[in-house]
Every structure is written in C-alpha cells, then in structure tokens.
C-alpha cells in the first residue's frame, strides 16, 4: 500500500497593509488572508505545509510585517516564506526571526533549504532591491547547482517570486526576468526538480521550464487582469482568489491543482438511486 500523499499548499501575493488600510484603496487584503488561512485550516485533507511565494506585504514596512506574522501563525501547519519585490529583506527577517530556515543576514539574497519533508524545499530570493523585476545572481546559481547536486535522488520544489519567463501580460513583462536562460540551464542539470513555484503574476500559469514545469500562483485577494496585449495597462480585478495545491506521492509523482477560496454552491451529487441524474 502506498503512503498517504504529501500536500503542499501554495499561496502568494498577500500585499498586507497595516492599520486596516485597503490596498490600492480597494482591496481588503487582511480580510482575504484571514479567509485563506481559515480555508486551508478547514480543508479535508488538510495540507501538510504551506509555501508563500512572495509579496507578503505591500510596502515592506515593519508595521505591515507585524500585522502579517500573527495572521500566518494561525495556520495549523508549518509555512515557509520567500520575499517578493514588495518586500524588504531586513524588515522581513527582523519580524520572522523565529523562522530558523531563513538566513540570519539580509546583506545577501534570502535563499534557504528545508530537508524535513518528503519533498525537498529550496527557496530562492529573486528580488532586486528597489526594482519590480527579478533575477537570480550568478552566485545564487552556483549555490543552487551545488545544493541540487548534493541530493540528486530527492524530489525537489524550488520556490521563488518572479517567474523566469515571458508571460504575455504586457505591463508585467516590461521588467523581464534578467537571466532566465542561465537559471534554466542550471535547473536542467537536475531532473529531480519537480516544480518551480512562483508568484508575482496574481494568476495561475504553467510553462515547461528546464525539463520541469514552472507555475505561478493566484493571489490571495486581487488578480491581475488576463490581458495579453503588449500594451496591456497595469490593472487588477477581484476575480475569485485562489491557491495551488501540490499533491506528492512517490509512486504517482507531483500533481498540481488550482483551488479557489470562499464558499460556493454545492457540492451536488451526479447520481441518485436510479443512476446518473437526468
């Protein structure tokens, strides 16, 4: 009999603010995060861990992280963080000093490894301080290559904020990922990488990458409009907030599901005593 699957929930782009302030004057990001945490805690089966792929807060301020920390502490399972372009490394580290997997210094990218689960987790800091776009430094890629090379037989998830590919959404692609081809070359040498899990786009997307799959996660509150014009304006909407649920089983591999938060009509049966309902 195969072991029970290991479930990894991924949430992203929380954009939390302090003082009950609405993000962009419209979005109740705190209320949305609370609904997301409640949903994950009540899930059956419950996820074993949560990974959060960046833009934890909106302006990287200490008061925003001080609001965020107790909200995430309500999760009934371990959770792991990487920064996004809205985050500030030193303020994130100061608030989450209890997260011992994180580096102790913000002078370098906040890269980390967690070995405690059936899948290995590697966090990559793709942020460029003060910029919107992303990159992974040559020094980070050398580190990643070495870390992946240590355990080539262990299924691995890479978590970072920026997807290292062109998405087709014009305003998000204007600051393109700087060295995606080099990162693809490194990851391509390590077939145990099951997924590259990203945020930033506030939408679910998938792309083949380095012989694996790179996917982006919906936001916990607002979503970027699906507009594939080159001159797409920078705008968002309030489509249903969502998350990704990655199901790992050693015999069956990794399957990724797209979920939505909130209560919706149903469930309804397909069948009654007479068979398929007509």
Q: What would a concise description of this structure say?
A:
The chain has 278 residues and is α/β, with parallel strands linked by helices.
> What proportion of the residues is helical, as a percent range?
10-25%
Considering the protein shown, what is the CATH homologous superfamily?
Answer: Metallo-dependent phosphatases
Give a short account of the largest sheet: 6 strands, mixed
What is the residue-averaged pLDDT?
A: 96
CATH topology: Purple Acid Phosphatase, chain A, domain 2
Major sheet strand order: 4-5-6-7-9-8
Series of H and E elements: EHEHEHEEHEHHEEEEEEEEE
Rg over C-alpha atoms, rounded to the nearest angstrom: 19 Å
The CATH class assignment is Alpha Beta
How many individual domains? 1
The computed structural class is: alpha/beta
Q: Can you count the helices?
A: 6
Number of strands: 15
Shape: globular
Tell me the fraction of residues in β-strands, as a range: 15-25%
Distance between the first and last residues' Cα: 38 Å
Residue stretches low in confidence (pLDDT < 50, at least 5 long) are none
* CATH architectural group: 4-Layer Sandwich
Protein described:
The chain is α/β, with parallel strands linked by helices and 278 residues long. Strands 4-5-6-7-9-8 form a six-stranded mixed beta sheet. Strand 2 (49-53), helix 2 (62-72) and strand 3 (79-82) form a beta-alpha-beta unit. The chain has helices spanning 29-42, 62-72, 89-95, 138-150, 170-173, 180-188; strands spanning 6-11, 49-53, 79-82, 112-114, 120-123, 156-159, 193-198, 205-209, 212-216, 223-224, 236-237, 242-249, 253-260, 271-272, 275-276. Helix 2 packs across helix 3 (89-95) and helix 4 packs parallel to helix 6. The chain has a single domain, classed as 4-Layer Sandwich (Purple Acid Phosphatase, chain A, domain 2). It contains six helices and 15 strands. The mean pLDDT is 96. Residues 8-204 form the Calcineurin-like phosphoesterase domain. This is 3',5'-cyclic adenosine monophosphate phosphodiesterase CpdA. GO terms for molecular function: 3',5'-cyclic-AMP phosphodiesterase activity; metal ion binding. Keywords: Hydrolase, Iron, Metal-binding. Its EC number is 3.1.4.53.
């Amino acid at each position: 009999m195969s072991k029970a699957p290991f479930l990894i929930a991924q949430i992203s782009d929380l954009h939390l603010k302090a003082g009950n302030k609405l993000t962009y004057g419209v979005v109740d990001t705190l209320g949305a995060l609370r609904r997301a945490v409640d949903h994950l805690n009540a899930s059956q089966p419950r996820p074993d861990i949560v990974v959060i792929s960046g833009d934890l807060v909106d302006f990287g301020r200490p008061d925003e992280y001080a609001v965020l920390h107790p909200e995430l502490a309500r999760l009934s399972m371990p959770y792991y963080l990487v920064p996004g372009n809205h985050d500030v490394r030193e303020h994130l580290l100061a608030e989450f000093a209890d997260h011992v997997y994180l580096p102790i210094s913000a002078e370098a990218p906040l890269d980390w490894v967690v070995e405690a689960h059936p899948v290995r987790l590697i966090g990559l800091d793709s942020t460029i301080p003060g910029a919107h776009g992303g990159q992974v430094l040559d020094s980070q890629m050398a580190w990643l290559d070495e870390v992946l090379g240590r355990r080539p037989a262990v299924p691995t998830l890479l978590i970072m904020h920026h997807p290292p590919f062109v998405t087709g959404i014009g305003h998000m692609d204007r600051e393109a990922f700087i060295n995606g081809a080099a990162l693809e070359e490194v990851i391509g040498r390590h077939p145990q990488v099951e997924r590259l899990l990203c945020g930033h786009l506030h939408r679910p997307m998938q792309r083949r990458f380095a012989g694996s799959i790179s996917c982006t996660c919906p936001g916990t509150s607002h979503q970027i409009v699906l507009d594939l014009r080159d001159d797409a304006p920078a705008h968002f909407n309030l489509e249903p907030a969502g998350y990704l649920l990655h199901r790992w089983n050693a015999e069956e591999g990794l399957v990724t599901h797209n979920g939505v938060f909130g209560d919706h009509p149903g469930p309804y049966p397909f069948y009654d005593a007479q068979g398929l309902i007509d």
